[in-house]
Design goal:
The structure is a single chain. The chain has a ten-stranded mixed sheet with strand order 2-1-5-7-9-11-13-15-17-19, covered by helices on one side. The chain has a nine-stranded mixed sheet with strand order 3-4-6-8-10-12-14-16-18. The protein contains eight helices and 19 strands. Helices cover 22% and strands 39% of the residues. By secondary structure, the chain is an alpha/beta fold.
Length: 421
Amino acid sequence: MNIQATNRLTPAETALVDAYTAKFSELPGDGAVVAARDVLFDDLKTGGLPTRRIEAWHYTDLKSLLRTVPEDRPAPVIEKAASIIAGSPVAYMLHGTADIGKVDGVSRFADSLLDGSAAAGLAEASKDDTIGRINGSFVRDGLVVEIPADAELDKPIELQAIHGAGQVHSRFPVRFGKGSKATVIERHLSVTPDAALVSSVSDIVIEDGAEATWILLQQQGAADIHLGQLRIKLGAEAKLRLFLINAGGKLVRQELRIDVEGEGTDLIVRGVNLLGGETHTDVTMVLGHNVPNTTSTEVFRNVVFDRAKGIFQGMIRVAPDAQKTDAKMACNTLLMSDDGEFSAKPELEIFADDVQCGHGATVADISDNHLYYLMARGVPRAKARAMLVNAFVAEIVEELEEENLVKALETIISGWLEHHA
């Protein structure tokens, strides 16, 4: 390794270099994995953490925002959380170590590192893939999920990543086989008030004719850094419902990198960002419609309290051959504080001429008319505001239709809103 002089690096970059140097010999992997890690970390050292000069990171200057990196501590004793849906099979990541229990179709990612089969998948997704570089350099374990072809699961599989303070890096390769139908819940949960640096990459393949629901629930602690990434590929006639809920973290970057690669695909993306305190939360999506005759709709709802800052960057790219693409994107925000901020940057990049594409964004406060309507019927002002905020985000969650899922997620959202409002 050709380590740069530390006087050129920020304290956070220096801490990453020191952590990699100290732990490199302990990281699992055969020769191919070791080589892949070296390439990733060399790219990270050479390029450094991204600044606002990199367009994809314009609103999240990680070099400035990530001032320190928590030390890599020994794994604490962590109690497992109850499943979100009663009776669902649960596989755990406990401070970066997999506990698969008896969940069918789930194995440890550490095994893929040791036998070298994970090496190709560690490659960075793009030239500005800082999250992929950090995760691929440090990841020790994860959960590999295989949904067999034509299988139809009656309960969701829950992947619960629970951690304490320090550094945690996890990977979730998941494949929905042809014609399968299943729901997976990916939940990130902190159990300590001390800071953690968490990186997570989920590599999701949805094969031809599969129907998948993926729910990402991020509930990090108020001091935590969460760097998450979903890499998704959809085959022909595939259907995906992707629901993203951010409800925690001090510094959060959640990337959605989605490629529609088969005709007849139907994609639904829904997001709820609950921002309070002094969090900085960035959701960046790049969606590629690469073939003809595909549809997608993306709707994000954001609620901003206190001095929180939120960002949504959404890019829809329509390839030259992707005729008959139908893609719509919307980002709607409630600003509940004069000190809060939210920036929205929806984009379309279209190279085909027979498409229907559109985007829009709104930022507003609670409607005075709606507030007056409730108060005129005896509802106190504070409760009326809470009811309206709840309704604003509940509309998104209710699209899931499955009553048990809707109820569980609405309970989590209502609890967050009651605490912050």
